[in-house]
Predict the 3D structure of the following.
Amino acid sequence: MTGYAQPSKILKVTWSDVSKQLKEATSNASSQASRTDVQDVVSAVIEDVRQRGDAAVRHYSEKFDKWSPDSFRLTEDDIEEIVRGVPDGVLNDLRTVQANVRAFAGHQLESMLAFEVETQPGVFLGQRHHPIASTGAYVPGGRYPLTASAHMTVVTAKVAGVERVTACTPPIRGKIPAVTIAALHLAGADEIFLLGGVQSVAAMSIGTETIGKVELLAGPGNAYVAEAKRQLFGEVGIDLFAGPTEILVVADDAADPFVVAVDLLSQAEHGPDSPAILITTSERLGGEVIAHIDQLLPGMPTNDMAGPAWRDHGQVHVVDDLDEAYRLADAFASEHVQILTEQPREALEKMRNYGALFLGEGTCVSYGDKVIGTNHVLPTRGAARYTGGLWVGKYLRTVTYQEVTVPASSAALGELCGRAARIELFEGHARSGDVRAAKYAGAPLPWAPDVYAGG
């Protein structure tokens, strides 16, 4: 996952009985006052968009982004012109990455089988998957133009069969983010609006004169966008309640400490509140990783983000063996878990709580974020204990149906339904069963004895 940042207390796990900490996280949680300020601002913007529609959207775009074009929606000609200005090499890379995402999402779709089964004579139960009619994809701008979010939210929705995908992305310092627009277009977005912030999320969720309402929102954003999704959830579906990006590395004595250090910092650069955690069986390796990070940070172009993240939320735990490492990793339930051990596939059997697992030195979290094909929208703050990340199934509604074609089976079910419903004092439910038992099998109908009298 990339770029989620929401003011909230970072999940803290303690495991003092089995681990030695070479580096502890410091407490740097956002104040309740700042969280309340974000909630109040977001609530006011949403209500204004609800009341004034496009006029409110334009007002906040001017206020927050200094952006007020004649139309926020890009025309086909606008898009074609923007895409023509993107270097061919960049476009080819976008196509390659999107092909990877599309292929994996396609395999996920193939795994979701519709079926129908006859459970009793003439009793047919079935399951089907229907795509959501419309979705909104938010791709943030700001410091990082997160083109990868276009792949994850738009390509995946289109593989699922979503008919209308509306995409919003903000201008970056008053300029059109050409590569992001190209990524959204190549991914298959049906509508692209050059519009950001809470005003865009509210517009897609509520609907305005020019921006159609969608049924589900997906994509990362800053604290205000994340809070807007939280407040609008229920009125519209969302992908996840998400917080700062997380990485957890499990490493044994055979791991390369320089690789471990580089990979930890690769995720710390997302923001100053991004946890980067190492669990290792080797105190030597843990110390070397810390030393490498101290050497690497000053020269990192993103040190202003990665530095505070490592200082305030970096942790290094030393445990006795890998079984303890996996148990501790499961307790964290981190978004990204990277396994740098001699037998990395052991983690598939010994771990349960993670957003995505990266097995061995040949892969890394950055591959998942940017290029390899699995989705990077993943659970944070321990939510991996109860949910997975964004996938093709999120854009589908799994529905069931039933049919009973043999009267004797319906009559037997009716008698059972009558007894089961009356245990719960639901007389109306019971009578629906009674009717069928009476009509199809001649069972008595004491509350309406004359209806089927005489057959």
User: Anything to note?
Assistant: The CA atoms of residues 117 and 351 lie 34 Å apart. Residues 2-13 have pLDDT under 50 and may be disordered. The chain has three domains: 19-30+243-386, 36-239+393-398, 406-455.
